[in-house]
Specification:
With 399 residues, this protein is α/β, with parallel strands linked by helices. 35% of the residues lie in helices and 12% in strands. Strand 1, helix 4 and strand 2 form a beta-alpha-beta unit. The protein is elongated, with a radius of gyration of 39 Å. The relative contact order is 0.08. The N terminus is likely disordered.
Length: 399
C-alpha cells in the first residue's frame, strides 16, 4: 500500500508536464492550420442560431479578415492599410478657397453667384430660360413717374433685366404695362436707390451682368438707345460711364455736359479753380450719380464703397475714381447717346416737415450732411491706412 502511494506521488508531475506540452502544441498547430485556409465567415456556417451567442457576425467577419490579412501582408502594405484607415476615419472636407462659411462643402456643389433671372414652378430646370440677359438696369421709382419709366424701359432691349425699386410702396399698379410682368419689383417705403443698391445689388448677385445701370426716374431718353450705348462703352474702354447730359437741362457739372462733336469724352472741361488736378473730379474721372453705368468689375469695388447708413449718395461720385485705374482713362461720358435730366423733386417730397421746414428741405439737409460725413470717412480711412504702413499721409506720391 505504501509502495503504490509513493508511485502515484512520483508520476503525477510527469503527467502534468506532458499535458501542458501537448495542449500548447495543439494550440499552435490549430492556429497554423486555421491561418493556412481561406477565411470562412461564421454567417455561412450551417450552425443553429441557438448554439451561437448573440453577436454581430458581420463585425467579427470583418475583424477576422482584417487580422488574417494583416498577418499575411508584407510590413509595408500593413502600414499603408493603417494610414488609409486613419484617413477614412478622420478626413473632413475643408476648402479654404471656397467662399467664407462654405469651406466644409465640396467645391463642385458651391453656388457662389446668383442672378435675377425668373424661373418657372414647373418643367425641367434646364429649359426655364429662353434667354439670359447680359445687362441689368435698375430704376428707383414712384408710381407718379410711371409714364416716364415706361418710356425709359422701352429703350432697353430684351438683353436687359429690368429691376424696379419702389420707394412709395406701390407695385401691383405697374401691371398696366406689359413689360412690368417680367420685371423684378422690390419695395421699401421712403428709401433711395443707394439704400437699395447696397442691399440688393450684391456683386455676387449681379455677377452674370456685364454692365449695371443704376438710374433715377426723371431722365428723358428720347435720344438714347441702350444697345448702342453699350457698344460705345466697349469701344472707349470705359469701366464707369454715363450718357451725356443735354446742356440746357438740369446741368451741374461741365464734365457731364454732352459734346456734339464726338462719341465720348474723358478729358477735363471745368473751371480750373475747381480742380487741384486736371485728371481728378470734377474735371475728369467723374460721372454723376443720377445715371451711372458700371462694368461688373467696377461695381464690385463701388459696392464696398457705399456706406450702410448714408443713403443719398452725395459725394460718392467724387470717390468713384478709387475703383478703377487709371481713372481718368476708364471713367467717361458717352456723348453720342444722351439724356435729359428733368429734375423732378419726387424723392424730396418723401421727407417729413420738421421745425417749420418743408419736406424737401429736410431731405436736402440730410444730403449735405451725408456728403460731409462720407468725405470725412474716406479721408480718415486713407490716413489710417497710410499711417499703419508707415507712410506719410501728406505725401501725395504715396496715394
Amino acid at each position: 500500500m505504501g509502495i503504490v502511494g509513493r508511485s502515484a506521488i512520483v508520476t503525477k508531475p510527469n503527467e502534468s508536464v506532458r499535458l501542458i506540452v501537448t495542449t500548447f502544441i495543439g494550440v499552435v498547430f490549430g492556429f497554423l492550420i486555421g491561418a493556412s485556409f481561406p477565411t470562412l465567415p461564421l454567417a455561412k456556417l450551417n450552425v443553429p442560431s441557438s448554439l451561437l451567442p448573440s453577436i454581430n457576425l458581420s463585425y467579427n467577419e470583418d475583424k477576422n479578415s482584417t487580422f488574417l490579412n494583416a498577418l499575411s501582408a508584407p510590413k509595408g502594405n500593413r502600414n499603408t492599410s493603417t494610414e488609409a484607415k486613419k484617413l477614412n476615419n478622420t478626413s473632413k472636407i475643408w476648402v479654404p478657397s471656397n467662399p467664407r462659411g462654405a469651406e466644409i462643402l465640396p467645391p463642385a456643389i458651391v453656388a457662389a453667384e446668383s442672378d435675377f433671372y425668373l424661373r418657372r414652378l414647373w418643367g425641367v430646370p434646364s429649359e426655364d430660360l429662353t434667354i439670359k440677359q447680359k445687362y441689368l438696369v435698375t430704376f428707383t421709382v414712384g408710381y407718379d413717374q410711371r409714364h416716364n419709366i415706361d418710356a425709359a424701359v422701352k429703350k432697353f432691349s430684351e438683353n436687359f433685366t429690368i429691376l424696379l425699386f419702389h420707394y412709395d410702396g406701390r407695385t401691383t399698379e405697374w401691371n398696366e404695362f406689359e413689360w412690368s410682368k417680367r420685371a423684378i419689383h422690390v419695395s421699401a417705403l421712403k428709401q433711395t436707390k443707394w439704400w437699395y443698391a447696397k442691399r440688393f445689388l450684391y456683386p455676387d448677385i449681379v455677377a452674370p451682368y456685364d454692365y449695371i445701370f443704376i438710374w433715377d426716374e426723371d431722365l428723358g431718353v428720347e435720344h438714347f438707345n441702350a444697345e448702342e450705348y453699350i457698344k460705345l462703352v466697349r469701344k472707349h474702354a470705359l469701366e464707369i460711364s454715363q450718357p451725356g447730359l443735354e446742356p440746357d437741362w438740369g446741368l451741374t457739372w461741365q464734365m457731364t455736359k454732352r459734346r456734339g462733336d464726338r462719341e465720348a469724352h474723358k478729358e477735363p472741361e471745368e473751371k480750373p479753380s475747381w480742380c487741384a488736378d486736371s485728371n481728378s473730379p470734377p474735371c475728369a474721372a467723374f460721372v454723376e450719380i443720377m445715371a451711372p453705368v458700371f462694368s461688373r468689375d467696377a461695381w464690385r469695388c463701388v459696392w464696398h464703397l457705399i456706406q450702410n447708413d448714408l443713403v443719398h449718395g452725395w459725394g460718392l461720385d467724387f470717390a468713384l475714381q478709387k475703383c478703377v485705374e487709371p481713372a481718368h482713362e476708364k471713367i467717361g461720358v458717352i456723348d453720342a447717346q444722351w439724356i435729359v435730366h428733368q429734375t423732378v423733386p419726387s424723392l424730396g417730397n418723401q421727407g417729413e416737415a420738421e421745425n417749420g421746414k418743408a419736406p424737401w428741405q429736410g431731405v436736402r439737409e440730410r444730403c449735405r450732411r451725408e456728403w460731409k460725413m462720407f468725405q470725412n470717412r474716406v479721408a480718415n480711412a486713407e490716413k489710417a491706412y497710410y499711417t499703419s504702413m508707415g507712410i506719410d499721409p501728406l505725401n501725395s506720391t504715396a496715394r
